[in-house]
Amino acid sequence: MGQNRNKLIDLFIGNMCNAILHKILEKAIDIPEIASKYNKEILNSWNIAKIYREKINPINSILHSKDTEEIEKRIIQRVKSELLIRISKGYKNINIEEVEKFVKEALREMKIIE
Amino acid sequence: MDQIYIPKNRSGFETGNYVLVKPLAQNEISGRDIEKPFIYGVSKISPIKIEIIKSIFSLINKNFCPDNVIITGSFLEEGFKFNDIDILIVDEKKQDYKELKHVLEEKIGINIHILSLTSSELREGVSSDPLYENMLSKFISCKRIILNIKRKILPKLLDLHLLKSKSIIDNFDILNGSEKYYLTKNMIAISLFIESKKVSNESINKEIKNKLKVEADDIKKNMIDKESFLRWYTKEYSRVFTMILHMIKKKENKDGPK
């Protein structure tokens, strides 16, 4: 059971990273009217993350603080590392300072933190 | 002997049916063009499908009078293995098509997917989005369209599109066959688009076989070996991602600092 739970948390983190990364990259696109058209694409990873979230524990009960800290830390690290790969290759317009804010907002929406 | 020529893709009767040949009345001739849809890239379609398409065009035109109506997607493939009918309604004013979807689904008994866009959105989509180009590689429209569009490669947008396909790597077990095929198709369409190759279902499926060593149909049926598929998939994903990053770098250097 413990192993399954860890696997679910891993999958949840992977999909949350994708959804948050999508949001940040959308803002970095130079043509805003095109970027806004693709808002719906974000829903794919977000919806899968939601499925895993509900499997980790009931959506209305709060996770143990040790788990929430770990999840938040790992998502921030993974999103930042994906963004840094792009920045190192010359991708401009990415605001890495915003990662924490986006992650907190997303985790609040997923009822991982209050 | 006199000969009569009829269109290959016609509605109403199959090969071998007995027909009655009679001269057209003048009023029937004048209404003929409206009745005849414009077919692009579709080599063969059954008469029953043409009948369905004509009834869709008629219902939409009667109630909304849009600039054009386009049918695309799996409905135009040979046989009856489609999931839904994809309808693009092209019009300068945006309207609510929820009720139309409901009415069409009731009438035809097939799931309907409606996308509403203006002609400039359609042009922009086809020139910069590989999946739009794929969608319009085969279509039937109410009025004739000439798609003489030059590809516009926007690397940051392609990066965003490609990100979607990453979810197969993490979620192989949870995704069904159609979802896996859609995400694979997305990645392959991007690579063909970048490499200036034709983006159509045929070219995508051929490239899937070539790059991922599986048949597209096996992905759709969810009958693929996870380990082998993910090995080739990850390799192709990182190849396409590297190409995109290279293009971003080139473009950002050309555009100068921001």
Count of β-strands of chain A: 0
Query: What is the ordering of alpha helices and beta strands of chain B?
Result: HHEHEEHEHHEHHHHHH
Query: Looking at the structure, what is the overall shape of chain A?
Result: elongated
Percent of residues in beta strands of chain A: under 5%
- How helical, in percent, are the residues of chain A? over 70%
Query: Quaternary arrangement of the chains shown?
Result: heterodimer
CATH topology of the largest domain in chain B: Beta Polymerase, domain 2
Order of helices and strands of chain A: HHHHH
Question: Which CATH-level-2 architecture of the largest domain in chain B?
Answer: 2-Layer Sandwich
Low-pLDDT ranges of chain A:
none
Q: Please give the most extensive interface between any two protein chains, plus how many residues each contributes.
A: A-B, 28 and 24 residues
Low-pLDDT runs of 5+ residues of chain B are: 29-33
Q: Strands of the largest sheet of chain B, in order across it?
A: 1-5-2-3-4
Round the mean pLDDT of chain A to the nearest integer and report it: 82
Q: Shape of chain B, please?
A: globular
Work out the count of structural domains of chain A. 1
Report the sheet with the most strands of chain A, covering strand number, pairing sense and barrel closure. none
| Overall tally of structural domains of chain B | 2
Class by alpha and beta content of chain B? alpha+beta
Mean pLDDT of chain B: 88
Distance between the termini of chain B: 74 Å
Task: Please explain how this structure is put together.
The complex is a heterodimer of chains A (114) and B (258). Chain A contains five helices and no strands. Chain A is elongated. Chain A is mostly helical. The model of chain A has no long low-confidence stretch (mean pLDDT 82). Helix content of chain A is 73%, strand content 0%. Chain A has one domain. In chain B, strand 3, helix 4 and strand 4 (112-117) form a beta-alpha-beta unit. Mean pLDDT of chain B is 88; it is low at 29-33. The radius of gyration of chain B is 21 Å and the shape is globular. Chain B folds into two domains: 36-141, Beta Polymerase, domain 2, CATH 3.30.460; 155-255, no CATH class. Chain B contains twelve helices and five strands. Chain B is an alpha+beta fold and 258 residues long. In chain B, helix 7 (155-165) runs antiparallel to helix 12.
